[in-house]
Write a structure and sequence with these properties.
Blueprint: E1 3-18, E2 23-41, H1 46-49, E3 90-108, E4 113-132, E5 137-150, E6 158-169
Antiparallel strand pairs: 1-2, 2-3, 3-4, 4-5, 5-6
Amino acid sequence: NGMSFNIDYKKARTLAMSFISYQLAETQSEEIAMGFGYLLRGVDIPFLTGSNKKGAKNPDPRNAPPQQQPRRPGGGGAFGGGGGQLRSQDLDINFNFSLRDDVTFNHLLDQGIIEPVRGNYALNISPSIEYQINTRLGLRLFFDYRQNIPRTSAGFPRIDTSGGLVVRFKLQ
């Protein structure tokens, strides 16, 4: 019914032994990622499509909303040119989430010392909404949030956010 859901879990452990310095490097990583998507078909947003949904019936097909207009070869809409109108517009809603934790430990075997040498904790959240107005014009509204927290004192916590509106216009 236009709904999708996915979940992914990864776990890894890597060991590397150095016989020269008697060190064992152990890297552990664990990640969980989840995604959800929903596709709504036939969504009409009047201020984007230019349709008029005031409730009055209009018998003139030239003034009908783009979904109900007959297709004309070589004709075009506001942005379409050559048959760019769709019969129905689709609204695609997506939400993605991931959480990753990785760390590398150095085991000094001759001294019995275990110390973390690198690693970070990462959180990513990215929702988006995409609306296809016609075959040539599409809009995408998105937001991305990324947070990295280092596992050692060598780095600083970092948060990156971005968002915006992407307008896609296809020439062919």
